[in-house]
Amino acid sequence: MRRRALISGLGGAAIAWPFCAFAQKPIRVIGLLSPFTREETEPWHEALRQGLRQLGWVEGSNIKFEYRYSDGHDDRLPEVVADLLSLKPDVIVAAVNTDAAPAARATKTIPIVMAAPGDPVATGLIKSLAQPGGNLTGLTQMATDLSAKRLQLLKDVAPGISRVAVLWDPRGGVSSLAWRETQDAARQLGLELHSLEVHNGTDLDAAFPSVVDARDNALLALQGPIFVVNEQRIADFALKHRLPSMYHLPEFVRAGGLLSYGPDRADLFRRAAAYVDKILKGAKPADLPVEQASKYQLLVNLRTAKALGLTVPQPILARADEVIE
Q1: Residues 304 and 182 grouped into a single domain
Q2: To the nearest whole number, what is the mean pLDDT of the chain?
Q3: How far apart are CA 133 and CA 112, in angstroms?
């Protein structure tokens, strides 16, 4: 009887062991949120996945991703966020302020890692960079002199400009901050700005004729999902009307825009992996200081410069991270 009981016990242990081992290594769910399209966000998400792989997180083995996009429609974000939260992810990775804000309003318990927002303190997402508090942490692309640098670069390449059309979204905290900074920079450079408030694609349709009617001679698009999802339209318009243009993302320049200058978003997403790793291992977001961007990219489209009859100064070409010829 004792022998049969022993064999029976061993058999039960053998059956139970795989389930115990599986329970010890659950697959963690990471929610990837974006106000942009899948295509536009994919290079940044790949950088995040690479960072996680380097830290030992293998998709399908110990980690799973759930992707949600609003495709440039900010009004859809609350619904998109609610759908993502229904899956009870272990961590949410937000791309910028536009999607981090509704996520922060929707949950105070699930950790949120911000990958590339503008100033998260000024926009009310966190208390401070050193002590974010709450359930948000991550990185920021904030830098106080970016607007001035962009306008200066634009004027260096196109010294004859005097009136710059500025596309910005007053609903977005970062876009509004950038607009204020751009006004200060323009005064210092002696440039006149033409404010064009854009909330959606219809506003963009109306903004284009306004630029032509006002005889603006340059174009600047500030941060905002509505501009990113319309990058090709904006770049095409600027080129068609012979407007030297400046942007914050390389994708605009690859679409035919003249210049872009800003933080390397792929690097920020790659670094965001370290935050996800720490949180999955037990760290609290409130205890993880928010870090700033350390890598910046300057792109120049020489084809566009030639089409506009502009000669890009050699020092700018030497500084450029990518030159499209």
Answers
A1: yes
A2: 91
A3: 12
